[in-house]
Design brief:
The protein is mainly alpha-helical. It has helices spanning 2-67, 72-97. The relative contact order is 0.04.
Length: 98
């Protein structure tokens, strides 16, 4: 009779081990699936961050463009100011390279 109990216990333990093994592989598969999902979401976040930065630049450009008056004298004055700034920047770059 003790041999029968031992066989029953061994069968019970083997059954539990098989259940645990199946659960382990199911969780392993789910973990890999989640890791792939995280990678996709990280790529999407990076793409959206780039898009947000570009939209901020576009927004700033539009804000500045709208603030520029449309009369010819003001446009000429702004062009002169921008040209002066560009010359100053070029002069600074030359000094830095010297």
């Amino acid at each position: 009779m003790p041999t029968m109990e031992l066989k029953d216990r061994l069968h019970s333990v083997a059954s539990k081990v098989e259940t645990l093994r199946q659960r382990y592989y199911a969780l392993l598969s789910e973990n890999k699936k989640m890791e792939r999902q995280i990678e996709r979401q990280e790529l999407e976040i990076a793409r959206l961050e780039k898009e947000v930065n570009q939209l901020k630049i576009d927004n700033e450009f539009l804000r500045v463009a709208r603030s520029v008056p449309s009369n010819p004298e003001a446009v000429a004055r702004y062009k002169g100011q921008i040209s002066k700034m560009v010359r100053d920047i070029d002069r600074c770059i030359k000094q830095l390279n010297a």
